[in-house]
Specification:
427 residues, mainly alpha, 3 domains, two-stranded antiparallel sheet, 12 helices, elongated
């Protein structure tokens, strides 16, 4: 009876041992179910729960089934390993570089030897460990990158606007500088009217201070003084009494405006006084033709009718023949003779030019005859008729010198009257 009981008890113990061993084997093969508060980060071990591992162990105690030698793979220690106190800290997550490794330890013991056995140091947490980013950290990092990029974009736009404003400002400054440069150039550029006034002033100064005889005979000096005296007389300035005789005025040739015509050669009824060099036989043909045509033109103009075009054309044709003959026989003449002949031909040309002027008849009906008793009346007459002094002919040169002296004296006296404020009338 007792043996039977003992055999039955032994059988029950054996069955219990077998069941216990089978239960342990099954537990060793099954994967533990995810904890309710398992980490949602897919980049870490999904079986690792917040604050603990799959094989739960209390802080400060090693796993119940952990061997003392630290050779069991897959488990670490939350507390210092008493079997291998020399190891350091391990990893909380499985290493993707070596996924067969398990978990390391959270704490370290007092021994600094890192070569001892243990779950945290023997390969579970020391080698191939990498940390992965969770979604929250990735979102915040991406938002920060977007914010930084947007800030840089806005900064670049504003800087571009500032650069554009600088370019516009620089363009305006350049335009202003160009306008100022143009104004400066206009201010310092020679003024045509100013140049003309300066030229007239120089001519007046030349005429006042003993001009050459050629300036007097060509009436350049006389017209410079006349222009100034007309301007002064128009302002009401008076001058001294400088008398003029009729013989002097009869030898003065007048012209209209800037015309080069001169009727001085026609005063003697169209009879020309040819100089000795042009009285040579080689010049006889065109010379006599010009004499005849000039007398015809004088008679026509004296009768109050302008010469016809055929007469003027014949005069110009004979003048050209005489000019060509003079140039062809220049070796027969001395320099002085050639100069005298050339000068007289210029007078002939001016006389032909005056005949083409419709106003030529005014010189022969005494409408433009200088009837004046003194210089003041002569200046007034010239101003009212719009006349100027024409160049002199050879027989008029002495009268031109006398008229110049009278005009110069009147100009000098008018300057004294203007400076002293006298208002005496020249009578």
């Amino acid at each position: 009876m007792g043996d039977s009981v003992r055999r039955g008890s032994a059988g029950l113990v054996g069955v219990a041992a077998i069941l216990t061993l089978g239960h342990q084997v099954v537990l060793g093969q099954q994967q533990p179910a995810p904890a309710a508060n398992a980490n949602a980060n897919v980049y870490v071990n999904p079986l690792a729960s917040t604050g603990r591992f799959a094989n739960s162990a209390a802080l400060g105690h090693s796993l119940n089934n952990a061997p003392s030698g630290g050779s069991m793979l897959g488990y670490g220690s939350l507390a210092p390993n008493s079997a291998a106190p020399g190891m350091g800290y391990g990893s909380l997550a499985a290493s993707y570089a070596n996924p067969s490794l398990g978990y390391g330890s959270l704490t370290n013991n007092s021994n600094n030897n890192n070569n001892g056995g243990g779950y945290g140091g023997g390969g579970f947490g020391l080698y191939g460990t990498q940390w992965m980013m969770n979604p929250y950290q990735g979102y915040l990092s991406g938002a920060a990158d977007i914010t930084r990029a947007n800030a840089e974009y806005q900064m670049t736009i504003q800087q571009a606007k500032l650069v554009r404003q600088d370019a516009i400002r620089s363009s305006i400054q350049t335009r202003r500088a160009m306008i100022e440069e143009l104004e400066w150039e206009r201010e310092h550029m020679p003024d045509p009217e100013k140049i003309r006034q300066q030229a007239l002033e120089r001519e007046l100064n030349r005429a006042r201070h003993s001009p050459p005889l050629t300036d007097i005979w060509t009436a350049t000096a006389l017209n410079s003084l006349l222009r100034h005296l007309i301007a002064q007389q128009g302002r009401g300035t008076t001058g001294p009494r400088i008398p003029l005789n009729d013989d002097t005025l009869s030898h003065i040739n007048l012209t209209v405006g800037d015309s080069r015509g001169n009727v001085g050669l026609l005063k003697d009824s169209g009879n020309l006084q040819w100089p000795l060099p042009l009285q040579n036989e080689v010049f006889k043909g065109p010379r006599e033709s010009i004499n005849s045509l000039m007398q015809t033109a004088f008679k026509t103009a004296s009768s109050g009718t302008a010469p016809d075009n055929s007469t003027i054309s014949d005069l110009r044709a004979n003048y050209e023949k005489l000019r060509e003959a003079l140039d062809a026989n220049v070796e027969r003449l001395t320099p002085d003779e050639y100069t005298e002949a050339n000068r007289y031909l210029r007078y002939v040309k001016n006389a032909i030019t005056s005949l083409k002027d419709p106003n030529v008849i005014q010189f022969f009906n005494n409408n433009w005859k200088a009837n004046a008793r003194n210089v003041a009346e002569l200046v007034q007459f010239m101003r009212e008729k719009g006349l100027w002094f024409a160049p002199s002919t050879p027989k008029d040169e002495a009268a031109y010198v006398a008229l110049y002296n009278a005009l110069a004296s009147f100009d000098s006296g008018m300057q004294r009257f203007a400076s002293t404020g006298a208002n005496e009338t020249d009578k």
